[in-house]
Amino acid sequence: MPRPELLEQIYTIVDQIPVGRVTTYGRIAAMTEGATPRMVGSAMRHLPDGHQLPWHRVIAASLKLADHGGAARQHQKLRDEGVVFDAKGRVPKHLVWPD
């Protein structure tokens, strides 16, 4: 798990991802003071109970959903927000935040 100060940075960034947009583990890591994409993934897997963070808006650099137990739920939540997927299951680049 990332250090508490990095967790706070990661969670603050995730909370800013707009509805209908996505970002990658790597982009979030680059906005912090030392987190790696793997640390961001760990932070997403260990979210605190009762959180309201839009975890579903964080995806892999391939612009596909990571293969995990919540992938079907993540896909549905994104579709509910208007996110579209191409035939290969990728999110279009124009939906990646920040621009």
From TrEMBL:
Methylated-DNA-[protein]-cysteine S-methyltransferase DNA binding domain mapped to chain residues: 8-83
Record Pfam families: DNA_binding_1
GO biological process, one term: DNA repair
Keyword Methyltransferase assigned: yes
Keyword DNA damage: yes
GO MF: methyltransferase activity
InterPro entries (UniProt xref): ATL_DNA_repair, MethylDNA_cys_MeTrfase_DNA-bd, MethylDNA_cys_MeTrfase_DNAb, WH-like_DNA-bd_sf
Key words of the record: DNA damage, Methyltransferase, Transferase
PANTHER family given in the database record: 6-O-METHYLGUANINE DNA METHYLTRANSFERASE (PTHR42942), ALKYLTRANSFERASE-LIKE PROTEIN 1 (PTHR42942:SF1)
Protein name, UniProt field: Methylated-DNA-protein-cysteine methyltransferase related protein
Organism: Vreelandella arcis
Taxonomic lineage from the root: Bacteria, Pseudomonadati, Pseudomonadota, Gammaproteobacteria, Oceanospirillales
